[in-house]
Amino acid sequence: FLIMPDFGNNDIQLFEAYLNYRNRPELQVRAGKFKTPVGLEMLQSAGSLQFNERSLATDLLPNRDLGLQFWGVVEDWGLTYAAGIFNGAGDGVIAANTPFDDNPEFAGRVFGQPFKPSGLKPLQGLGFGIAGTFTQVSSNAAGLPNSIG
Questions:
Q1: Cβ(89)–Cβ(98) under 8 Å?
Q2: Which residues are CB-contacts of 58 (< 8 A; sequence separation ≥ 6)?
Q3: Taking residues 56-82, what's their average pLDDT?
Q4: CB contact at 8 A, 17 and 45
Q5: Average per-residue pLDDT in the chain?
Q6: How many alpha carbons fall within 13 Å on the CB side of residue 57?
Q7: Which pTM does this prediction carry?
Q8: Which whole-number Å values give the CA distances from 76 to 44, 117, 135, in the listed order?
Q9: Could you count the other beta carbons within 10 Å of the beta carbon of residue 41?
């Protein structure tokens, strides 16, 4: 499990709070509020980034949201995957302040590092992946008052 609160700006917010069940590294289930599996840069720790800020493209991707996700790591193949269903809070909207509705968001990611298990050191960090989301939202007006910034 993980609980990550934020006590800044005279306000208490819950950034992340989830339970993760790990049967095997290849088969895990996560439920709660956490980062959606889209956007490789967002999924990396700030200490792992090459630059001191994330790119502008990261602002276009979903951030943390309420949901249920199946995910896993297949070390022998250098493969990670994640697929889940989320509340679909919308871009730049605080997920905790938006109600559940009939417009869930489906998100998924597959990322492979085929040279990671090999002895080719220069290519071990090279990876290929694809990720995406799908939702049907008729209006984002309900989420606008809860915008960040």
A1: yes
A2: 39, 41, 42
A3: 86
A4: no
A5: 81
A6: 5
A7: 0.75
A8: 21, 6, 33
A9: 14
75: three-class secondary structure by DSSP: helix
Asked if 35 contacts 51 with a C-beta cutoff of 8 angstroms, the reply is: no
Closest by CA to 96, choosing from 32, 27, 139, is 32
**Backbone φ and ψ of 39, nearest 5°:** 95, 90
Give the 3-state secondary structure of residue 11.
coil
Burial class, 92, CB count within 10 angstroms (exposed 0-12 / middle 13-18 / buried 19+): middle
**What residue type is assigned to position 36 of the chain?**
T
Q: What residues contact 61, with CB distance under 8 A and at least 6 apart?
A: 36, 38, 39, 42, 91
What does the block give as tokens for 47?
């200490």
Cα 146 to chain center, whole Å?
Answer: 20
Query: Which token pair is 22?
Result: 């790990």
Radius of gyration of the chain (CA): 17
Measured CA to CA, the distance from residue 98 to residue 25 in angstroms comes to 32
Question: For residues 13 and 95, what is the distance between their CA atoms, to the nearest angstrom?
Answer: 11
Q: Which of 10-24, 44-58, 64-78 has the lowest mean pLDDT?
A: 44-58
